[in-house]
Design a protein that fits this description.
Order of helices and strands: HEHEHEEEHEHEEHHEEHEHHEHH
Structural class: alpha/beta
CATH superfamily: Glycoside hydrolase, family 3, N-terminal domain
Shape: globular
Number of strands: 12
Mean pLDDT: 95
CATH topology: TIM Barrel
Low-confidence stretches: none
Largest sheet: 8 strands, parallel
Number of domains: 1
Helix content: 40-55%
CATH class: Alpha Beta
Distance between the termini: 51 Å
Strand content: 5-15%
CATH architecture: Alpha-Beta Barrel
Radius of gyration: 19 Å
């Protein structure tokens, strides 16, 4: 029973690490069955090196896992100089250009060995002072975001890489950066339903595989907790909007969380609220402490075992749609040479 519990907890953890090769600390966590690895610019030197690193990750893992990346285009491009340089999403002129960008993203990421791209950004850029999102957004109105983001995510998934709608329930009208502080969204529910939520609803209807929940306080839903830790926000996502796919937290080591509570405790709260996977992208000690905290929370009846089992089951279900062991083309893929 204890081994099964620890495996389920590990499936709900996504880890990152420093360096161009797999460190022993990450290798040890992979041996426990973590459900995902995320690569950043710090892990990237060349296409051959990225493919080799991903192969090492998979070889160290006792069961299938997803390898993910933040590759949006514009200024968020972890693979700059290796994959096609895409423009900022705000500059895409129309749906055809967005569809072409999504197809290229999917083909290139799949060829490198990735399974999940933490894109597209579905935030509506309603605040001109919001440099955190800025030109990462697809538009300044819900209709503009939907018109470009949905073709991109659909094309990316058709090309073989899972897409992730972010930053739920909307980061477009904030000024603070959750990497450094805790933003607050002060709008009422009518405004959220009219502006912030429609792009996410459209993405869910289009079959997006995953959704990333932001570290923002949405006062109309939960004035006390960030969205990533809030049962009320998860109920909106699962209930009102009907999303039954994979739900990830943003990185729990961001200051919006880690500056206010322990990362392991935040992980327990996020799973209890309804998240399926926890991103802990930097510190191996925090990663292991988060895994231990989840196991201890179930053993101590603070986190229902059925909630953990449901989260692990969603991880497995998502992987059935984009199997990590699917055939991979050479890089660059045919037609992109």
């Amino acid at each position: 029973m204890n081994a099964t519990l620890r495996r389920e907890a590990a499936r709900c953890l996504v880890i990152g690490f420093d360096g161009l090769t797999l460190p022993d600390t990450a290798r040890a966590l992979l041996a426990e069955g973590v459900g995902g690895v995320i690569l950043f610019r710090r892990n990237v030197a060349s296409a051959e090196q990225v493919r080799s690193l991903i192969a090492a990750v998979r070889e160290a893992a006792p069961e299938p896992l997803w390898v993910s990346v933040d590759q949006e285009g514009g200024r968020v491009a972890r693979l700059a100089g290796i994959t096609t340089d895409l423009p900022p999403m705000l500059s895409l002129p129309d749906a055809a250009a967005a569809r072409a960008a999504g197809r290229r993203l999917g083909r290139e990421l799949a060829a490198l060995g990735f399974d999940l791209d933490l894109a597209p950004v579905l935030d509506v850029l309603t605040n001109p002072a919001n440099t955190v999102i800025g030109d990462r957004a697809f538009g300044r109105t819900p209709a503009a975001v939907i018109a470009r983001a949905i073709p991109l995510l659909t094309a990316m998934q058709e090309a073989g890489v899972a897409a992730c709608a972010k930053h739920f329930p909307g980061h477009g009208d904030t000024t603070l950066d959750s990497h450094h502080d805790l933003p607050v969204v002060a709008h009422d529910l009518d405004r959220l339903r009219a502006v912030e939520l429609p792009p996410f609803a459209a993405a869910f209807a289009a079959g997006v595989t995953a959704c990333l929940v932001a570290h923002v306080v949405v006062r109309a839903l939960d004035p006390q907790r960030p969205a990533s830790l809030s049962p009320a926000v998860m109920e909106l996502l699962r209930g009102e909007l009907g999303f039954d796919g994979l739900v990830l937290t943003d990185d729990l080591e961001m200051a919006a969380i880690a500056g206010r509570r322990s990362v392991p405790e935040a992980g327990v709260q996020a799973l209890a609220a309804g998240a399926d996977q926890l991103l802990v992208c930097h510190d191996a000690r925090r990663q292991r402490a988060t895994l231990d905290a989840v196991v201890d929370a179930v053993a101590g009846n603070r986190l229902p075992r059925r909630r953990l089992a449901a989260a692990a089951a969603r991880v497995a279900s998502a992987m059935e749609c984009f199997p990590p062991d699917r055939p991979r083309p050479d890089f660059p893929p045919d037609g992109d040479r």
